[in-house]
């Protein structure tokens, strides 16, 4: 059965399961250890009463998860209530039929807890790996969304034709999800066109707000809601999730402990895109300031930042990325505990009041 907080904000976590060396020890855990620990983190989150657990999809040796539905299926057998989502599925290079059937299977074995956050991804490795032309980057994404929505329409037999895969002629789609369809969110970081696409499709908006002033993301949420309204989607389907890097301790401890991992994470991601400027400690402290989107500080400071963003976006879900940059299991587990026991109860109470 799904964990539901209908009248207040959902609080969850997600991981990309990086295989980066710990910047303090130089140690890199094996893929086997990382996956074992990822499952343990999900179990901790479920036991602590968090609402959502997500895993990202990457096709590189420095990440441990290439198939979110496989790892989420393993997690489903050890958890009871927490929703299980990709974060994100690289939809441009996924066959939508295979994706739908994999997550429908996960949905059945988890008693209806499967969800998908779909996006374009930060890397292009999956294009040559699966035989897709990166020159069709945009067109593939749009066509795959269209096909997935058709598959997700609660019809068991589908006829469909596109440009980049063979057509479907009275194709039987099996199995069907536990609840008839799979909740779909589209991941958006800064492109108005992407926000409008999510609204027009009737999907949820998963907004990555990782740095800077969160007010700069307000136009994206507005465009999303305007597009959803124009397309005639019911308000209950128009949902916004905010994702962000998060660590909760005392303010000074959080800054001291998180900086090496945050710097390690971004230096590796940026190097892929040809950016080799290091993140200084001063840069990080500014990025973690009171008015910014980086959730680093005491539990009270995290609460204040989430509520500030809630006033801006009126979102229904907050997802914290809590184990970046080679962070060891123990620190990630402590982060989950603080989020669940010190932050989530206050946020749920405050957002429930706001909806009364």
TrEMBL record:
Superkingdom of this protein's organism: Bacteria
Keywords attached to this entry: Monooxygenase, Oxidoreductase
GO cellular component, one term: cytosol
InterPro entries for the chain: Bact_Lucif_Oxidored (IPR050766), Luciferase-like_dom (IPR011251), Luciferase-like_sf (IPR036661)
GO MF terms held by the record: monooxygenase activity; oxidoreductase activity, acting on paired donors, with incorporation or reduction of molecular oxygen
Domain Luciferase-like: 9-313
Pfam family, one: Bac_luciferase
Protein's UniProt keywords contain Cell inner membrane: no
Protein name from the UniProt record: Luciferase-like domain-containing protein
Native source organism of the sequence: Bacillus amyloliquefaciens
